[in-house]
Write a structure and sequence with these properties.
Layout: H1 4-14, E1 23-25, H2 27-33, E2 36-41, H3 51-61, E3 71-74, H4 78-90, E4 94-98, H5 104-112, E5 116-119, H6 124-135, E6 140-141, H7 148-164, E7 170-174, H8 179-191, E8 196-202, H9 207-214, H10 237-246, E9 249-253, H11 255-269, H12 275-285, E10 296-301, H13 308-321, E11 325-333, H14 338-348, E12 352-359, E13 369-377, H15 381-393, E14 397-400
Parallel strand pairs: 2-10, 3-4, 3-6, 4-5, 7-8, 7-10, 8-9
Antiparallel strand pairs: 1-2, 11-13, 11-14, 12-13
Helix pairs in contact: 1-3, 1-7, 3-4, 3-7, 4-5, 7-8, 8-10, 11-12, 11-13
């Protein structure tokens, strides 16, 4: 049973084994979205996410049952790393089943924390089945979310939040399998019954949202998402009952909103979040949740384990969407000085050249002309409009890419 006493016991077990992550106030987000907004930075937790809380708690409570075969788990990333490190520190071997598409960086991080990685399956569900099978050989299975002791460990975040922001009115929490939000909500509602708890899922994998809408726990289909850490097709059984009891509302967000949230956290707060951790802010950006002027809201940034190549694509896409990058093709006379003249005009208009590509062989291009593709750093969409207008007035033929 997951109640306040169980979560407080988990907090005692975790003392000295995990970081007490900060809760920071954000004046920028408060001005932008209203109310007084705080961030609970679990991206600064050991292994880069909240998952080590539940894994450490579970192993401490089940220590007498764990033999020489150690523990077995399945995960695409954060749970894998949390279990691997918790097992290493408890002196147990850990076998982690990861889907074949799990990122190389997360595989290597899991190995670095002492876990033996087995790649199996094209989905988390298939990896879970393999892990269950391996556990029949003697290892204790550590479920990523559908376990009361895991939930109690994650619920310690709720205790910490309300110790820091005692009069919080609203908690906004990501939902994947449901372990995080069910633990936080159980703790928060026991301490402050009138607090609102809102869960956020990606629209690509709305398992908790659809389960609540239909009144029963269901499995949904799923596609690729920036928020891969919460792309769980069916929430846990014990999590579902806790969510139904304690969570006030569940909302869905889109991929564009998640990307925008990642970029805003990085630029405005210098906070590196993974997609799953950014969905609470995405809900504010997309207008799915409103905060009144008098409310105090805490956004749980659940993790920061984002792959560098993906982060680069997200940043670049966000800059393009926000008018911070302009890509154009300018047709020039293929004579000495033409490019220098163009770049001089760009400099006068206060744009910064990021990349240049010179193409004399473009189809349908006159023989005495060349096409110059420019990627420019700009200030805003208005700046882009001004650049396009002024370059055209200067006689340049421009095609926006």
């Amino acid at each position: 049973m997951v109640n306040l006493e169980a979560i407080q016991e988990a907090a005692s077990l975790l003392k000295g084994r995990i970081f007490r992550t900060p809760v920071v106030h954000s004046p920028t987000l408060s001005r932008t979205f209203g109310g007084s907004i705080f961030l609970k930075l679990e991206n600064l937790q050991r292994t880069g996410s909240f998952k080590i809380r539940g894994a450490t708690c579970k192993m401490a409570m089940a220590a007498e049952k764990i033999g020489s075969a150690g523990v077995v788990a399945a995960s695409a990333g954060n749970h894998a790393q949390g279990v691997a490190l918790a097992a290493k520190e408890a002196g147990f071997p850990a076998t982690i089943v990861m889907p074949e598409w799990a990122s190389i960086s997360k595989q290597e991080a899991t190995r670095g924390y002492g876990g033996e990685v087995i790649l199996y399956g094209q989905s988390i569900e298939e990896s879970l089945e393999k892990a269950h099978s391996l556990s029949q050989e003697g290892g204790v299975f550590i479920h990523p979310f559908d376990d009361p002791e895991i939930v109690a460990g994650q619920g310690t975040i709720g205790l910490e939040i309300l110790e820091e922001v005692k009069d919080a009115d609203l908690l906004i929490v990501p939902i994947g399998g449901g372990g995080l939000i069910s633990g936080i909500a159980a703790a928060a509602k026991a301490i402050r019954p009138k607090i609102r708890v809102i869960g956020v899922q990606t629209g690509i994998c709305p398992s908790a949202y659809e389960s609540r809408r239909l009144g029963r726990r269901i499995e949904v289909s799923s596609g690729a998402s920036i928020a891969d850490g919460i792309s769980v097709k069916q929430i846990g059984e014990c999590n579902y009952s806790l969510i139904e009891k304690h969570v006030d509302e569940i909302v869905l967000v889109g991929e564009e909103g998640i990307a925008a949230a990642l970029l805003m956290l990085l630029e405005r707060k210098k906070v590196l979040s993974e997609g799953a951790g950014a969905v609470p802010l995405a809900a504010l950006i997309e207008g799915k949740i409103s905060i009144s002027a008098a409310e105090k809201a805490v956004l749980v940034i659940s993790g920061g384990n984002v792959d560098s190549p993906l982060l680069g694509r997200i940043i670049n896409r966000g800059l393009l969407r926000n008018g911070r990058i302009m890509r154009v093709c300018v047709t020039l006379s293929d004579t000495p000085g033409s490019l220098a003249k163009l770049l001089g005009r760009v400099a006068q208009l206060k744009a910064n050249v990021l990349h240049i590509y010179h193409d004399r062989n473009r189809e349908n291009l006159p023989i005495n002309s060349t096409c110059v593709e420019l990627e420019l750093e700009t200030r805003s969409s208005n700046h882009i409009d001004a650049l396009r207008r002024e370059l055209q007035l200067s006689g340049y033929a421009i095609q926006t890419l």
